[in-house]
Amino acid sequence: MCGIVGVLGHHEVSPMIVEALGRLEYRGYDSAGIATVNAARQLDRRRAVGKLVNLSDLLVHDPLPGKAGIGHTRWATHGAPTVSNAHPHKSGPVAVVHNGIIENFRELRADLAAKGKEFFTETDTETIAVLAETFLDQGLSPRDAAEQTIARLHGAFALCFLFDGQDDLLICARKGSPLAIGHGEGEVFVGSDAIALAPLTDRITYLNEGDWAVLTRNSVEIMDSQGRRANREMRIVQIDTSRIEKGGHRHFMAKEIAEQPTVIAEALQNYLSSDGKSLNMPAALPDFAKVDRMVMVACGTAFYACLTAKYWFEQLAGLPVEVDVASEYRYREPPVTKGTVAVFVSQSGETADTLAALRYCTGKADTVLSVVNVAESSIARESALALPILAGVEIGVASTKAFTCQLTVLALMALKAASDRGRLSDGELATRLAAVRALPGMLNQALDRGTEIADISRRLAEARDVLFLGRGPLYPIALEGALKLKEISYIHAEGYASGELKHGPIALIDRDVPVIVFAPRDALFDKTVSNMQEVMARQGKVLLVTDALGAEQAGEGTWKTVTMPDIDPFLAPILYALPAQMIAYHTAVAKGTDVDQPRNLAKSVTVE
Ligand code: M6R
Predict the structure, then answer these.
(1) What is the pLDDT of residues 565-593, one digit of tens each?
(2) Nearest CA to ligand 1 atom 8
(3) Whose CA is nearest to atom 7 of ligand 1?
């Protein structure tokens, strides 16, 4: 959360920084700001509340010259989104931008206040600038002042300093939050990720945990947490910047929903043999015949991918799976016994709680593996094996294509586990894989229901509460449908296992509460339909999402029925994720909310 950028350039850097911040706005959009050192070597800054466009407008009227600068887009943690709380924070000759939380800021602040320092904001970040200024006051050089400051900070952070009088110096540090250095021709860049720097350079060095770096236009000096010079590999990271554009769609979310058949086909190419008839999974994956249990840990949508996968691993492979949300798992001190494979699922690969849970399992589980979208992320780099989901850059805060790509990779892993454990013959595996290969075509057919779903969603937009029901592997899809709807339309929504309804939530049912039921014609269909009838008997307004046979058998009396193509029940959760996403998207559009950047949220949750 929060995006940071730093540039030592040849030209005016403000426009460059604003553009790079645009690529980081997915990390937060409560306020934005930049600071530069100008030709007279003076430090100055501009800050604006709300989205980046407000900062751009401010800079039109009040430009900020300078060829050295830092910038920030904020997701507020300490203090409301106001101009004074916006970064860069400045104290005397020091400006700093920061992502993360300084956990000991109260002690530091009290200490500094006792020494007569004044504070003007409610943020933890201001403490960093004031502390650095104190060291400068004692006569330390900017480099030594930064080193002393960084050493006194506890918590998880990435930060970048800029100093008055220094137009060829940036000092940055990483502890718990990612940070990348970009190498240009006589220019140097700092960014929260490589996407921010993509059009500027493809030569990237990722800082390791605890590293800090002193940058000039012609030198990059990296130190590890012990202050020793460290060599960090420079990699070529090519990011197709067209994937960071909306490509004719009204929103990134719409584009990302539409991309699913293509990106899943790409993922299948990677994980299936060239004729598509056998699995081509990494050799480093464990032999699941030797595995006793699996632990799967994630947050939000990625957690629902794990919940879905639990059905697959248990039913197909007979492998016990424990699934937990990372924020609970990390502090529960769960026993991790020998024979355990620990799996961490994350789109960004930077989610603080998931990363902490991974670190908890490292050294305890037999294998620590991750299923990630961002291949260079911390979670990927700290796993023994990282399986990329190959969804491409996902910008919309509401996760869509990453979810179905996570499901696809986990489904293939479950097939491998079933095969390893002798629960699936070669013939049965071939039949399953034939169904998997047909998935992109099925997803295209699901997308064809877009107009119909948009019509229904205009009515859903009037609701105050919406319930989602599913059974078996469609239960996590009900949870995901509810999460998607609430996060972008702000309508209160809950997902339930349909069998749970009569244990409480049925009390909510009346004609004003739409109930969305995901029920393909599978082995559990009749059970789900009975629960649906219980809703309709109480005048509940049911939107049934099913297949042709399901519609024929249970469509009568529903408020609306949306028909999906017939699919192997094993793959139904992946297919039914699309109507869940489209319902949320079109409802949010009908309500006029900010689809890609919903209030209070950020794409990458790097604080706990
Ligand atoms: O990057 P991650 O997959 O680890 O993120 C986990 C959640 O923060 C994320 O899925 C969140 O719930 C999405 N906004 C849901 O659409």
Answers:
(1) 999 999 999 999 999 999 999 999 999 99
(2) 300
(3) 300
